[in-house]
Specification:
single chain, mainly beta, 12-stranded mixed β-sheet
Length: 427
């Protein structure tokens, strides 16, 4: 037996070596070295407080927090790996003076059977700067138009200020903070949550993940007001100076005004009344001109909806001096009534007399002179004089005229009437 082991010893060693080489060749042919690429592997950041504890903030540049990793190993090993086995780590406590951090790659499986593991970028690139904190007012605005007959009223927010924290360079870009509400076709009040959006000086939106907000949205209430066009009405107080009267004409620079308010309030309003105390004509010798602040006479919660309206209303109350006119009354406009029975009458020397009337020109211009008819009631006249049986003779009797409204008679007209008893002739 021993002889068998010792015979041809060199040849036997050579056979073992050849068999091993052959095995390696076969294995390399069946399980070759290969590469596999894993795309989009996130870089885990550790020891970030090494930067933040110094009152600084970092930003990752050029998307270097995501890498593509290439693993070189035997095919049998690669077939057992997936992206969850690949880890990329950047230790921020090891940041260089040029703000670079080496990305360290590893696999949690078959790590000792991997020939190499590399990535498309070797370093995490950072921008490091001081942290800044600043408060900004929130500007609430609306877009769109409410339904026809409605408009946007007051806009209120639950919070009016937002506090931002982030890189100084980014904070300095913030020019305004806005929250926008869409009121298109709305007919009632709106309560909603609006997102907070940052804008730079060119009104471009700022979107930066490095910024921290104490709030990201705000509760907003928008009142939707009903509108209505209503006229003005006027009341006047006081009395003009002696010898003057109102013309009855009151005019304003606007006949109507569009108002806005809650629907239940607007529905009850039919006009805007300018009260008497606002238009006092006491002692006036010419037309009163007054400037009225319309808002003073609007109900609570109601406002002027017309953007072109200044809110001021000019009002003129017409006042004119009284004037005396003399009107000629021809004989045919003298009516004699209640002539005592058995008497006849004639007008004595009546060639047309006049009466004096007083009114302002505006009123007098509307008076029809032909409407002035003088009535003489002889029965009433004799009764007032205590005459039961009138005698023949001439009587001077006042003709009574019915004066139109706002016209006063200042000169009377007396007519001479000759009364004669009728004598019956015998057959």
């Amino acid at each position: 037996m021993k002889k068998w082991f010792t015979q041809n010893l060199g040849l036997k060693f050579l056979s073992v070596i050849c068999a091993s080489i052959l095995w390696l060749i076969v294995m390399n042919i069946n399980d070759p070295i290969d590469e596999q690429r894993f795309v989009g592997i996130p870089v885990e950041l550790v020891n970030t407080d090494a930067i933040t504890d110094e009152g600084k903030v970092y930003q990752i540049l050029e998307n270097t927090n995501t890498v593509n990793v290439t693993v070189r190993a035997k095919r049998s090993v690669l077939d057992q790996l997936d992206r969850d086995n690949i880890h990329a780590v950047a230790d921020l406590s090891e940041v260089s003076v040029t703000n670079l951090v080496t990305i360290k790659l590893s696999s949690n499986r078959y790590s000792n059977q991997i020939d190499s593991i590399t990535s498309n970028t070797e370093f995490l690139k950072l921008n490091i700067e001081d942290v800044r904190q600043k408060q900004f007012p929130i500007q609430i605005s609306t877009i769109g138009t409410p339904a026809e007959g409605y408009l946007t009223g007051t806009v209120t927010a639950g919070q009016t200020v937002v506090r931002l924290r982030g890189p100084e360079s980014v904070i300095d870009q913030v020019h305004s903070v806005q929250a926008v509400i869409d009121v298109t076709d709305m007919t009632s009040d709106v309560s909603t949550t609006a997102s907070i959006v940052l804008y730079d000086a060119d009104n471009k939106k700022i979107e930066d993940d490095s910024l921290q907000f104490n709030i990201s949205s705000v509760e907003v209430k928008v009142s939707i007001l009903a509108t209505k066009s209503v006229p003005f009405t006027y009341q006047v107080s006081g009395t003009p100076a002696e010898g003057y009267e109102q013309t009855g004409v009151i005019t304003g620079t606007y006949d109507r005004i569009t108002i806005a308010g809650p629907q239940n309030v607007i529905d009850t309003i039919t006009s805007i009344n300018i009260p008497a105390e606002a238009l006092n004509v006491t002692g006036q010798t010419d037309s009163l001109h007054a400037m009225i602040t319309v808002a003073d006479y609007l109900p609570a919660g109601v406002s002027i909806a017309d953007e072109e309206h200044t809110g001021l209303l000019g009002v003129m109350v017409g006042i004119e001096p009284l004037e005396v006119s003399y009107l000629t009354i021809p004989e045919e406009r003298i009516q004699i009534t209640n002539v005592p029975e058995g008497y006849e009458y004639t007008l004595v020397n009546y060639s047309g007399s006049s009466i004096g009337v007083r009114a302002i020109p505006t009123v007098m211009g509307r008076v029809d002179e032909a409407g002035f008819v003088g009535e003489i009631d002889l029965g009433a006249y004799f009764e007032s004089q205590g005459i039961s049986e009138p005698a023949d003779g001439v009587y001077s009797v006042e003709a009574v005229f019915q004066m139109p409204e706002r016209v006063t008679q200042v000169q009377m007209l007396y007519v001479s009437i000759e009364l004669t008893k009728i004598v019956e002739e015998s057959e």
